[in-house]
Amino acid sequence: MTDQLNDTGRENAPIWNKKLIQTYNVSGPRYTSYPTAPHLSEQFSELELLAALERSNQRGSPLSLYFHLPFCDTVCYFCACNKIVTADKKRAQPYLQRLDSEMAIWAKHVDRARPVEQLHWGGGTPTFIRDSEKRQLMSHTRNHFKLLDDDSGDYSVEVHPGRMNLESIAVLREIGFNRLSMGVQDFSHRVQQAVNRFNSFAQVRDLIAAARHQQYHSISVDIIYGLPLQTVDSIKTTIQQVIDLSPDRLSLFNYAHMPELFKTQRQIPQETLPSPDEKLAMLQQSIELLVADGYIYIGMDHFAKPHDSLVKAQHQGSLQRNFQGYSTHGKSIYGKSAYGKSTQGTATHGDWDLLAFGVSAISAIDAVLVQNHKKIHNYNQAIDQGSLATSRGLRLSSEDRLRGSIIMQLICHFKLDIESIEAQFQICFARHFAKELVALAPLAVDGLIRLTSKELRVLDSGRLLIRAICMVFDAYLKAPTQIPESHNNLEKTAFSQII
């Protein structure tokens, strides 16, 4: 394997430098929000949420809706999601009825004229519910909110290909979905047995063919590296098979083994896991294969074909990052992007509010983050009492918005317009971030970034380490110092950077 991945000349291909990766490979947040979810407070007042909704209505921007459907037929041992494992399909209907009730509560405070330009079903396994229930949920959603009828929205759903039939692909398209995300993870039968998740190549091939026949706008596939019994050769086979299927998007996630936090991971013996060096080899090889096939490296763990809307959004400066990952639509509670086109007084891609429904779901509304109860009985009780199911929240301070804007610009665009940040937030960047600039100095010396008085730019060598770069601006972590000296002291959250 080559040491520099961008020798191919492919756009946005990161440079691979094993020494730098090992030096700056720190554990930290995935930055689907800032501050991240662990910093939400139970002291948050519902009055603040209602005030945020009122401000949101006055702005009149489009809406993004998220629905958390937590049910799974079987447990995948690697999973860290909020889920309910059951074979009893009857458990879905009471939950769907409560989702309807929850939407009704929210809808009382939301202007019905605001169009829903993004909608996502996540889980769990959203397609656990029957086809009739899929129609029911979308019908109830349409009763409460203004869904688009012209197929122009970004309406996506996650599916488990091993638990999916071809007829459901047509049903999902019929009720309005136009994007499909499949959690393949690995095609090796040995690996599938080790993690208790099964889907054959033939199943995935047929589902993708059916989705293309139904004219879905985009098909995405998820792969995980670092799973038990995985080898460099076995994941190469999986990646090549995925390339043969030619999905529009691909996510390459790192498996972080944290059985002390996630009970299901205790089913995976530590000795079956690949070593850190093997994981690095898997990642390097996978990126090389994808880039050579023409996939564009969007950032973090996302790749897309050149024609895909993620690539176009990144070029246009409108790419967002939210609780579902990178998105062409989303919620920026930090202010307008320095790279997006905006017009004073009008809504832009970054102005949308995210309303989230279901157990543990997180909403983002006009500089406010709120999360529903994580435990199903607490969620049920709140909805049955006719109240919102929110349990924690946070109103972003001006400092949160400043730092969140910086982190989101870096993670989406690999560059930061310092002059724009200074104008938007009325600060002197050099004075406000004096400690952070000291912490960035070794990254600049090592060739990860280029820093001037006008711009911070992430170089090709730093693209794979974007999380470590963003962490310098995270005020909720320990005071920034030279990351190589301090990485062992940083808090462990969610998933590790690379290995």
TrEMBL record:
<dbReference type="InterPro" id="IPR007197">
    <property type="entry name" value="rSAM"/>
</dbReference>
<keyword id="KW-0560">Oxidoreductase</keyword>
<feature type="domain" description="Radical SAM core">
    <location>
        <begin position="57"/>
        <end position="290"/>
    </location>
</feature>
<dbReference type="GO" id="GO:0051989">
    <property type="term" value="F:coproporphyrinogen dehydrogenase activity"/>
</dbReference>
<keyword id="KW-0949">S-adenosyl-L-methionine</keyword>
<dbReference type="InterPro" id="IPR034505">
    <property type="entry name" value="Coproporphyrinogen-III_oxidase"/>
</dbReference>
<keyword id="KW-0411">Iron-sulfur</keyword>
<keyword id="KW-0627">Porphyrin biosynthesis</keyword>
<dbReference type="Pfam" id="PF04055">
    <property type="entry name" value="Radical_SAM"/>
</dbReference>
<comment type="subunit">
    <text>Monomer.</text>
</comment>
<keyword id="KW-0479">Metal-binding</keyword>
<dbReference type="InterPro" id="IPR058240">
    <property type="entry name" value="rSAM_sf"/>
</dbReference>
<comment type="similarity">
    <text>Belongs to the anaerobic coproporphyrinogen-III oxidase family.</text>
</comment>
<comment type="pathway">
    <text>Porphyrin-containing compound metabolism; protoporphyrin-IX biosynthesis; protoporphyrinogen-IX from coproporphyrinogen-III (AdoMet route): step 1/1.</text>
</comment>
<dbReference type="InterPro" id="IPR010723">
    <property type="entry name" value="HemN_C"/>
</dbReference>
<keyword id="KW-0408">Iron</keyword>
<dbReference type="InterPro" id="IPR006638">
    <property type="entry name" value="Elp3/MiaA/NifB-like_rSAM"/>
</dbReference>
<keyword id="KW-0963">Cytoplasm</keyword>
<dbReference type="InterPro" id="IPR004558">
    <property type="entry name" value="Coprogen_oxidase_HemN"/>
</dbReference>
<dbReference type="Pfam" id="PF06969">
    <property type="entry name" value="HemN_C"/>
</dbReference>
<keyword id="KW-0004">4Fe-4S</keyword>
<protein>
    <recommendedName>
        <fullName>Coproporphyrinogen-III oxidase</fullName>
        <ecNumber>1.3.98.3</ecNumber>
    </recommendedName>
</protein>
